[in-house]
Amino acid sequence: MSRPKNEQLKAQIVKEAEKQFSTVGYKNTSYTTIAEACEISRNLVQYHFPKKESLAIAFMESVLSRSMEKLGFSDIDLRGNFDAIKKVGTVFFEKLLKKPGTRLFLTDIISSRELTQSVLAFNYEWALSHVGVNDESSSEVKGESFEAGSAEDALIVAPVTRNPSSPQSRTAQLENLEKAKRVVIVRMGGFYELLYWCLKSNSPFNVEQEISVVVDAFAAALNSSL
């Protein structure tokens, strides 16, 4: 069964945006350049994607999916598996750092405070969706603080606490998720600060080592009140 026309057009826009992000970076990609390549109006691109950053998030989701495929991981393989999440994160950033175009894309993203905030939200929600947290509780924690859309909320199915019906357990769970969110903001924010400095100074960056620091801290924060 073919996709509705609007969905086909959105897919075409995303595909073209990904192509341009990969070659000329984020800042040099615009609604106009995407529209011209797709042979549609700029207004139509903006209608489907009111925020350009949503196209950047879609691109990063695509790179994450390809990273998982390269490692032979499914979503189920990643659920609660922090070692696997480290591997996917490592391959993800190595892919972005491999070519000049995607390196420029990454530099553009993390040089903007607003864009970095959206990417931090994406990082947090994607990681949270693979560690076994129920969707109701995670939504309460992330709903007010992060504006970016959920990465893969359908995968958030298993409760963190042993007795989620208990008020004390629920309170502990929400506090734990809030702590985990703060850990991601601090640790991943530091990760991006260091990465940006390395990119600008052309210094080496040990992706595997730095990702491990972030994921280990995230895991410790989630497990601390179990």
Largest sheet, in brief, is: none
Following the backbone from N to C, one meets helices and strands in this order, namely: HHHHHHHHHHH
Radius of gyration: 18 Å
| Quaternary organisation | single chain
Give me the count of strands. Answer: 0
Q: Overall 3D geometry?
A: globular
Give me the number of helical elements.
11
**How confident is the prediction overall: mean pLDDT?**
82
Low-confidence segments, given as residue ranges, are: 134-164
Strand percentage lies at under 5%
Helix content: over 70%
DNA-binding region: 30-49
Organism: Phoenicibacter congonensis
GO molecular function: DNA binding
Domain HTH tetR-type: 7-67
Concise structural overview:
Helix content is 72%, strand content 0%.
Describe what you observe in this structure:
With 226 residues, this protein is an all-alpha fold. The chain folds into 2 domains: 1-50, Homeodomain-like (Arc Repressor Mutant, subunit A, Orthogonal Bundle); 56-223, no CATH class. Helix content is 72%, strand content 0%. It has 11 helices and no strands. The protein starts with a helix and ends with a helix.
